[in-house]
Design a protein that fits this description.
Elements lengths: L1 E2 L2 E2 H14 L2 H12 L4 H8 L3 H13 L3 E6 L2 E6 L3 H16 L12
Antiparallel strand pairs: 1-2, 3-4
Pfam families: HTH_5
InterPro entries: ArsR-like_HTH, HTH_ArsR_DNA-bd_dom, HTH_Metal-responsive_Reg, WH-like_DNA-bd_sf, WH_DNA-bd_sf
Organism: Cellulomonas terrae
């Protein structure tokens, strides 16, 4: 089944990205990994969350196909699953800030 020029696969992929970005911690993780790969403990410290929260959020992002784990001896570090995701996040940041930065916040009338 096709919907215009988008396929159900496209729709599913965008829905996964939307789900990932719907949580502030996951969004912060993706933005951090845009800068450089990182170990979960370093991400947890930088973002001020527990290591358990970080583990859960990284598992979600892995499940969405947005990050991948890379074994490094007894540790594992994480990076964006596709380098194009970095550019896509930058484009989304520019778009969201241009549309209306006050929309969809805690005091938004559309909620």
């Amino acid at each position: 089944m096709r919907m215009g020029t988008a396929t159900l696969t496209h729709t599913s992929a965008l829905a996964r990205l939307g789900h990932a970005l719907s949580d502030e911690t996951r969004t912060k993780i993706l933005l951090s990994l845009r800068e450089a790969p990182a170990y979960p403990s370093d991400l947890a410290d930088a973002l001020g969350v527990s290591r358990q929260v970080m583990s859960n959020q990284l598992a979600c992002l892995r499940g969405c196909g947005l990050v991948e784990s890379v074994p490094d001896g007894r540790r594992t570090w994480y990076r964006l699953a596709d380098p194009r995701l970095s550019s896509a996040l930058a484009d989304l940041l520019g778009l969201v800030l241009a549309v209306d930065p006050s929309c969809c916040g805690p005091d938004c009338a559309c909620a």
